[in-house]
Amino acid sequence: MKGILKIAFKLLVNDRGKFATLIVGITFAVFLMVQMTSVFAGILSKASATIINIGSSVWVMDPAVNNPLNSIQLPDYILDAVRSINGVNYAVPLYSGTSLVKLRDGTYQPCSVLGLDDSSLVGRPELIQGNIQDIFADNGFIVVKDEEFAKLENPTIGTTFELNDHRGVVVGIAKVATSGLFGIPTLYTTFTRAIQYIPSPRFTMAYILVEPKSAADIPHIKAEVAKAGYLALTNKEFQQRVADYYKYQTGVGTNILVMTLISFLVGLSICGQTFYTFVLENMEKFGALKAIGAKGYELVYMILFQALSTGVTGYGLGIGLSSLLIFVAKQKVPNYAAVITFFNLALAFAMVLVIVAVSSYIAVRKVIKIEPFEIFRG
Amino acid sequence: MTEAAVQAIELVKWFGTEEIKTYAVRGISFEANYGEMLYIVGPSGSGKTTLLSMISGILRPNSGRVLVKGKEIWTLPPNDIADFRLNNIGFVFQDYHLFPKLTTLENVAIPLILKKQDWDESLRIAGEYLEIVGLQDRATLTPTKLSGGEQQRVALARAIASRPDILIFDEPTASLDGATGRMIISFVKEQLLNEHRCILIVTHDARIYEYGDRIIQMEDGRIVKITSGGLREE
Predict the structure, then answer these.
(1) A98 and A150 share a domain?
(2) Same domain for A225 and A262?
(3) Chain B neighbours among A 293-312 (CB < 8 Å)?
(4) Nearest 5 degrees, angle CA B25-CA B29-CA B30?
(5) Which of A238, A291, A361, B25 fits as disulfide partner to B13, beta carbons 3.0 to 4.6 Å?
């Protein structure tokens, strides 16, 4: 069988024009599919930045919240109610809001501000400069060094700024797992300072961060929170809720899905047509092989091998091209939202397999039907 | 060898439907022996290609039997018939049907590769057969770079590479000029025909009739005459 597959491969690659068209078709389709789904994955990752970076096991929130940046403030008694639930190890408040920061040159820069529980600093970021204790110093803020860092004029420890007519001092520089979706820098401070510096409505807590005693306690905690009319979600569930929001309640998911399908159809049509033409042109030769003594299944293997070789090569090139573009784009546009995930790769591969299957199915039908007698008839 | 290489017994083939049948072959019987070069000749539509296809295991007859090397081929399952062809019958098609994207050497090696021989070994043996047909210096060229006569010789090398006992030629000289055609057939007779091999040639090229040991003349699906020793000698 190895020999006949080698013949199949040579027949394919030696027909350079068609092989190039097939490869370009699949590469282009994979490139577009991976690009689309990676951008979507990037958007979802960035949209869940607060959830990922804070990293709390369970989040308590208003049931109407579907996006961490659009939080609905919780009344203070809920914090006590949550703390009193059996199975809760601890529960702390989190402030999440945005504010305008006045820079030293007089310009304003919107920033995301996260206020951590004063007593525990649960959800604090990993510092790369400074000491976490300094967050308690007068006007202390920690700046996240991400793609948006430069928008605060690349501050260093000691850099000052104004925040709602209050003085702010950078006391630490942190790194986080992922930056936010909306292209604004992130500041961390204490909960008390956050509500003191930033105008707040009657209620101030955006979320309650809960650490259960064990994973087995989570269902009970969720049920008790629900009885109080609020929603408790695990970290993963909250991220999924955000993903669902972008997928189904904004046009982003639909648009990405449509573009991915179009890419798939482009690949399918180019490859299906070219592969069909390739087989048609070789039909007499396949008939001759059958007359010489090749069995039908051997010809089917040849076609499947040709289709699969093209698919895998195009898939590899498409992934490579996509990765290269994302790499280059991230060098030029730091907050470019695109992440290649295993799911993206698997999805693109599955779609390539469908393209290969459909293309080869059409060709196989033709080849199986060919009668070697036709070769004699000329 | 005493038994016939090929025996056709009362072969009938028709095309169309039960209601409207068009007969291509109407009850033909003949034998082809080892060491013999047998021509099947006749005008277009006389049924010679249909007959050739039936005796080579490519086209199933409506009735009648075909014995090749004593084996009744149409009683075998399809894959076994394919195997039988691969191991016992070599074909030279009218248009050669060489793969233009493979080298001459690879084209010749195809039957060996189909017989699941090792790739390198197949190429080595193919090289020997290219040498037999005098094209060893064309091994790395593709068939498109060869002349018609050279392509015919490549097709010949491919047909004999698996050392079949039966060689079947379909209009072997149709695309060649007279001198080249005669040269090819002369080569076939002198170099490839031996007491262990039978060669069947379908042709209506009268220029090569002289090489036939026997000539079966067909008309309207029937044998009208069997001549020995070539028509030209009559």
Answers:
(1) yes
(2) no
(3) 293-296, 298
(4) 120
(5) B25
